[in-house]
Amino acid sequence: MTLNYDEIVRKYEKYVFQTYTRQPLAIKKACGAVVTDVNGKEYIDCVAGIAVNNVGHCHPAVVDAIKRQAEQLIHVSNLYYTENQALLAEELSKLTMLDRVFFCNSGAEAVEGALKLARKASGKKEFVATEHAFHGRTRGALSVTHKEKYRKPFEPLAPAVFVPYNDADAIRAAINENTAGVILEPVQGEGGVIIPSDGYLKEVREICDEKDTLLILDEVQTGFGRTGKWFAKEHSGIIPDIMTTAKAMGGGFPMGAMLAREEVASNFVRGDHASTFGGNALACAAAIANIEVIKKEKLVKRSEELGDYLVKRLEGLNKDYVKEIRGKGLMVGMELSIKCEDIVSKAREQGVLLNCTSESVLRFVPPLTITKEQLDTAVSMLNDI
Ligand SMILES: *Cc1c(COP(=O)(O)O)cnc(C)c1O
Known about the structure:
Elements: H1 5-15, E1 27-31, E2 34-37, E3 42-45, H2 48-51, H3 60-72, H4 83-96, E4 100-104, H5 107-122, E5 126-130, H6 139-143, H7 148-151, E6 160-163, H8 168-174, E7 179-184, H9 200-210, E8 214-218, E9 242-245, E10 256-260, H10 262-265, H11 281-296, H12 299-315, E11 322-328, E12 331-336, H13 341-350, E13 352-353, E14 355-357, E15 361-364, H14 372-384
């Protein structure tokens, strides 16, 4: 059975929770940085499933790994060992310079694990988080997510204090005897691609050391080459106590991870945390293939170079409505003086997928495999709009 656009939308309207504002677009397939809708129209994808498809859609090596693994073993639970989880854990530990990994299935779930671990390791209950932070929608993650609209209906949440982002002194002032940890994104994603000043993370690390408080870095969006490093923490050279990652981890396959230094990780003992699907054989096969592709195609370097190129191109645009352009690798935000939803619609009509975050920030997080020509097409079309 092949449904047309209207039939698909009607079923969503009848049967699916109405929690998302969706673009009027039903996608049938995708390859590299090109997405095709149910009518056969093609789009250049500058969203990549929200910083997920870093290796491009349906990368043949990831597809092949999933196919081969699916024929051999899909799932067995964490009651048993699998080779894939062992190999991926080692690889991730090396890539992040953190000692241990807990596998889960999403960003919010990784954050839940991080908050639980920080509470257990510190014996304390409160978190210091930052204004405009986004850490996910489950209850623990929501308690450190800043947006009032997301939080209000679900209060009381876990105790957290919010301080301005990019203000290390504010973090110093907020830490007290009840603080379990400080959580922040190395670059704020949903908050509007906010890049902190150079010394910020290093200073926060020093403050956390001085005050004996755990530092949790949320790299759910910034991981796997997105910002021109494997993980954005490398820009500042710091090592957090706990780190979360997810979005681009499985090459499009849903997967997340929480990592920690041994001294902290050892506070979680058997029974403290678990996930039925976490690190299952199929997800790990996808992630292993995904990491191989990033290495083989040198996508981290490519992210850095193409990110610089994209920022330069955007800076060359008509400046009438442009307030600021910010970028770290291929995580680029163009803040406008107007709301950007109309621009997203017009771009889509012309064949380019863009995302708008924080109402007025156009966010570019395309596949790291996107070509210069595809970026050029997207940018020149923006100029016309
Ligand atoms: C997307 C995101 C999350 C939540 O991830 P989900 O997989 O949607 O639960 C958490 N933290 C950051 C920084 C994110 O960008």
